[in-house]
Amino acid sequence: MAATRRPGRNHLFVPGPTNIPDRVQRAMIVPSEDHRSVDFPTLTKPLFEETKAVFGSTEGTIFLFPASGTGIWESALTNTLHRGDKVLTSRFGQFSHLWIDMAQRLGLNVIVQEEEWGTGANPQRIEEALRADTNHEIKAVMTVHNETATGVTSDIGAVRKAIDAAGHPALLFVDGVSSIGSLPFYADEWKVDCAIAGSQKGLMLPAGLGVICVSQKALKAAESSSGPNDRLAHVYFDWADHQKQNGAGYFPYTPALPLLYGLREALACLREEGLENVYHRHAVLGEATRQAVAAWGLKTCAKEAKWNSDTVTAILVPEGVDAAAIIKHAFVRYNLALGAGLSQVAGKVFRIGHVGDLNELSLLGAIAGAEMAMLDNGVKVQPGSGVAAASSYLRENPLAKS
Ligand SMILES: *Cc1c(COP(=O)(O)O)cnc(C)c1O
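Above: the input entities. Below: the structure tokens describing the complete assembly.
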């Protein structure tokens, strides 16, 4: 009889949802309670303050929605923009593509800078486009910080410099769904007007809690309206409805209660490790993964070192090999979940997510499993080479900075 149970832990190495620390999981096992009770703000009020740290903000305003990251994209666009507004963005992977698709379907006039997949936002092109927009018709610049589909991180500080160099007043919206809580993110310093996060990646929670950190400038944009007809419709995601209630620790509708308890615990985990250590750990684990890829003689989807993402590595398989077959085999045979190639790179890459709650030995498990699954599928890598390269790098580079 075929076994119906896979023994041992599943090795979850998709770049979201990520592994949930046991203590965070336990913190979410709570009875239901009255979200209008006098006790409830004891839980919620500190969350609005404490969540700002992962955004690198003290000046921003946090909104918490029962939604996935996609919902928070919508909240940023609909609260601040009007039908037909011009927005400037670049497309270099499936997530930047989907955000563009949303903006178009909402009725925005989207100026798309196509960048090669494996690269990211080009600050010089952004500056040129903004300089050319002398009437300031472009209302926002949208950038995906970490393109999860290709394993590419864009330089948001450089995007901010480009906007300032052009002397352009456009808002800056940044998708940090697979970076915030794992990669350095400085919403105040970079003057990010809407910084967008989801719960199931760096925040180490299940999907279902969408988080946005909004600047004063974006709040003002949300208040000003040139008439009800050309505002983008937003009801569920209306910041103003939340603002009326959040100050006292309440929400306009039923919050996702267990996720709020989970968020409190996940933020405690990040605080106890120290955000600088969290960022350093991701940098070390990202580099160890890339050392393994190099030892296999393979290439990453990221075209140059400057694009390397420290939360996800997309690995190009040799011509004639189906990456989807490797992913399926890794799961069925070794209980290892690797990320699939999406859209343009489907079948060409598999992804190792190294985001959230992991350490040296968990990463080495994924590298060993990927290596075994590749060998089983005819990829002629040197057995043990990836594990050897990653482990010697990890021995030399401790995860904790301090
Ligand atoms: C996962 C992800 C999203 C989408 O988030 P959902 O929670 O699946 O809606 C958006 N952007 C990036 C960069 C992501 O990695």
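Note for the figure: The radius of gyration is 21 Å.
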